[in-house]
Every structure is written in structure tokens, then in C-alpha cells.
Amino acid sequence: PLALGLYTVNAVYGDTITMPCRLEVPDGLMFGKWKYEMPNGSPVFIAFRSSTKKNVQYDDVPDYKDRLSLSENYTLSIRNARISDEKRFVCMLVTEDDVSEEPTIVKVFKQPSQPEILHQADFLETEKLQMLGECVARDSYPEGNVTWYKNGRVLQPVEEVVVINLQKIVNKSTGLFTMTSSLQYMPTKQDANAKFSCVVTYYGPSGQKTIQSEPVVFDVHYPTEKVTIQVLSQSSTIKEGDNITLKCSGNGNPPPQEFLFYIPGEAEGIRSSDTYIMTDVKRNATGEYKCSLTDKSMMDSTTITVHYLDLQLTPSGEVTKQIGEALPVSCTISSSRNATVFWIKDNTRMQTSPSFSSLQYQDAGNYICETTLQEVEGLKKSKTLKLIVEGKPQIKMTKKTNTNKMSKTIICHVEGFPKPAVQWTVTGSGSIINKAKETKYVNGKFSSKIVIAPEENVTLTCIAENELERTVTSLNVSAISIPEYDEPEDRNDDNSEKVNDQAKLIVGIVVGLLLAALVAGVVYWLYVKKSKTASKHVDKDLGNIEENKKLEENNHKSET
Predict the structure, then answer these.
(1) Residues 297 and 326 placed together within one structural domain of the fold
(2) Transmembrane ranges (predicted)?
């Protein structure tokens, strides 16, 4: 490279400067020398080399002591380059007849340290011009320049908004420059989270270069412009017994730490931190809730609905009624929104609500009226009715001859609650028969059965007794040798219906036959009436004959 038409060597601060002698070695060369020129033009010789004796001599120049090296081709090297080495050096080749000179310009460059932003502001306030910080880049040569950036864009000076001041200080001992650029800045709310940085531009051996600082984010303070109230809850709905946490927040920075909360039923606002907690809320907590800053400015509101569910079962608990009685049952619901109601009897869901106009034993059981509030998690109520249907013992006895003709089965059909105790006795001896077998007690009914083979006519007595009454019924049973008609046992409802249908059919046939007989009788009566006059005398004779026959029959019966 050439500087002003002269050969220039660019060196890095601290490295070795190498300057070749750019002259052709002439014939008859006696020696070569290097010198540099003072600012006033006077020369200072620093190195000598003889071409004949091959010896090298260095002049006593303090700045270059132990730093010089002169090679055989007269190339001069200077170790540990300094800023003071920026000079005009001259190579001289001397013969007996001539002295040749060739100058070289030395330029030294030093890269500055990475810039740092020092003396940073703790925070920035909007609408206020304040010192943001200082960008410092040290030990540069030649001097560099500093530029400020925000979010990657250059910050240009703007009066009372962006004020930049650059100072450059040189170290007299080293000749290196330190650049300090201060930035005064008036931030806006949008500068929250903005990245500020600075860049130093400097010159190196290969041209212009830049180094950037680490970005810095400042806490920007700005006033609250809006207040927001929230309901913090684990569920989307609130029910009686829940806890409610109200949170009030402002969009300023730093955010407000205290607020006024306005609760339904309270005349004045309640001063609190940013949260207000209500525990075990009731339905009367439903209403509009507000919060504001402590100066009562900037208010926000929200509406809270506390859902509730009431269930009233009449009657409830344990209820004892007599068979055949009526029992009205009602399950009344009061809720904050539509509720679903269903009934369960003995762990089985019922299709309809229970209603009892005439209680039966099968109506007894545990009834649960249960209700839930749709879309309100965990809101469920239920009440229980334990219905007991009592009845005095009722007895019906039946008998039948077994197919083997060797025994008879006597059955005592019993109804009642509490379950009656059954005893059998034989009239006369009064002994208790212990070989009876009982069926399963279902819906207040069961039966006790015995099998006997009586040698003579006997009377069996069935005694059924519970806490309400003692009932006794007897049945005459013929000896096993005397045939008797079987009596059917109780049948189930399906068989009863079939029997009823058959009975209705038989009654219809009988009525039809009676009507036919009546018509035939009327026809016969008309016929007899017509022929009555003509056969009057014949009838009289016949009547005498009939009377005689009747007398004979009566006499025969009397004899017999």
C-alpha cells in the first residue's frame, strides 16, 4: 500500500513491524543503514550493517533498545509495535560513489476493547429526560466513533428526547484512545423490554470495522391507565361454601400494590392488597364486585353468581305406616338454575316419583330423592325416606292330596310385617308340629308347609303372630283313606290373570245359554195357551192321574 505515493507498512499494536529495504543492492556496496526522521526533519540513525565485515550495529536509541533486528538483505524488524513507531523510516545503501535512500511509512493500529454500557440507570420513567448510561470503548488507535442503537436501529439525536455526548481521551504514555459516549433518553411506555446497545467503529490494518456491546434492557416505569378485576377460582362456577379470591391489577409499572374493593352490602370500599379473599360464601354474596385505585380513580367491575341448591323431602327419615294407608310424598327443589331430580329405591333408579294411595308391603324400602345442578361441579343434594309398611298377620290355609295318595300337604299362607312367627298345632292334643318348612319372606308374604298322613280326621291350626296381633286359623283334614278335593295354592299375578280370563269366558257362555232357554220358554208358553181351551177335559183327567202317581210316590218314600 502507498500513502501519499510512499510505501506504507500497516502494523498491529504489539506485533512485529517488518520493513524490507526496497532498493536494489548495488555493486560495490559498503554498508547499509536505517534511520527515521524527527518531526522537524532531523534524522536519527538506529541500525548499521557492513557488507564486507558482515557485522551489525544498533544505535543507542532508548525507544528501540532490544527491539531491532536487521537481516542480511537489510530488512528491518521492530518488535512489540508501539504507537510511537508511526514514523517515516528510510533505508540507505552506501557505495564509494553513491548513497541510495528509500522511505517507508509505518502505520500502527489498535482494536478497541468491546464497548460496555456503564453507569446504567436503575429504571427509566416515561416523560422524563434522564441519563440512560455511558458507552465506553477503551485502548483504540486511531480513535474510533460510538453509535447508540435501540432494538437494532440507530438512535439519532432529538432535542430533549435523545441527547448524545461523545468524549475521546488519549493515554499520554501509550497513545491509545478511550471513547466515552453518554446517552440521555426520554422513554415511552413502548420502550418496556426495548434492547439498548452501542457500537464502536474503528480502523484496522484491513479497513473499517465495528464491535457491538451486549444489549441492555431497562425497567421502564409508567403510570397505571387501566384497572382490571378478576375472580380466581379452580372452577368456572361458584357454589355455596366455596372460597372466592378477587384479584385487582393495574397496567402500570410498577403495578399498584393496594386497591379499594367494593363488596355488595358494604357502603365503603375495603382497602386491601391486590387480592381480597372471601371464605365459605353464601347465596347472598351474589352481586357486582368492583375495585379501584386507592384514590378511587380507574374502576373495574365483575358480577359473581353464587349457585345454591336446596332439597326438601316430606316426609323424610324413618316413617312407619300401616298397609292400605295413603302416604303423600313430595320432594321440593329450590336452586339458582334448573336442577335435575331423580329417585332411587334400594339402589335402583326409579322411572317415576313415588306415590302411595294404598300402601302395600312391596312399597317398603329406602327411597332417596337426589338432585344435581347442571354445569355446577360438586353441587349435589339428597335426602332419604326409610318407609316401613306394617300389617297384622293374615292367614289363608290350603290342602291337597299328594300324587302318591299316601300323604297330604297343608299350607299356611301368611302376610304381615314385621314377619310373623308361625306355629302349627293339632286340635285335641295341642302338640306343636316342628317339621314345617317355610318359603322365603318377600314383600311381607311367605308360607309354611307341612306334610301329614292322618289315619283319622284331624283339625290343623296355623298360628301367626307379630308385634301387632296374633291370628289363628284352623282347617279340617280328612283321614288319608277318605278322598277330598285338592285346593289350589296361591298363584302369582300372571296365573291369576289367566284364571280371571277363563272365568269371564265361562260366565259369558252360561249367560248365553240362559238367554236361549228363556226364549224357548216364551215360545212354549204361547203354544200352550192356544191349545188350552180345546184340551180342557183331557187335562182334567190327566191331572187326576198325576195326582194319583204323586200320592203313590209319597207313600213309597214314607215306607222307605
Answers:
(1) no
(2) 505-527
Residue 183 lies in a domain: yes
Which of helix, strand or coil describes residue 295? coil
The one-digit pLDDT tens for each residue of the chain (560 residues) are 444 458 999 999 999 999 999 999 999 999 999 999 999 989 999 999 998 877 899 999 999 999 999 999 999 999 999 999 999 999 999 999 999 999 999 999 999 999 999 999 999 999 999 999 999 999 999 999 999 999 999 999 999 999 999 999 999 999 999 999 999 999 999 999 999 999 999 999 999 999 999 999 999 999 999 999 999 977 788 999 999 999 999 999 999 999 999 999 888 899 999 999 999 999 999 999 999 999 988 999 999 999 999 999 999 999 999 999 999 999 999 998 888 899 999 999 999 999 899 999 999 999 999 999 887 888 899 999 999 999 999 999 999 988 888 888 999 999 999 999 999 998 755 556 667 899 999 999 999 999 888 888 889 999 999 999 999 999 998 888 776 665 554 444 443 333 344 444 454 565 567 777 776 776 666 655 554 443 333 333 333 334 434 434 444 433 43
Give the CATH number for residue 407. 2.60.40.10
The whole model's pTM is what? Answer: 0.57
Tell me the three cell numbers of residue 171: 493515554
CB 162 within 8 A of CB 150: no
DSSP 8-state code for residue 418: S
- Residues 126 and 48 grouped into a single domain: no
Percent helix, strand and coil across the chain, each to the nearest 5:
15, 50, 40
Number of separate domains in the chain: 5
Q: Is residue 398 part of a domain?
A: yes
Give the contacts of 229 (CB within 8 A, at least 6 positions apart). Answer: 246, 247, 248, 289, 290, 291, 300, 301, 302
Structural domain boundaries enclosing 170? 116-221
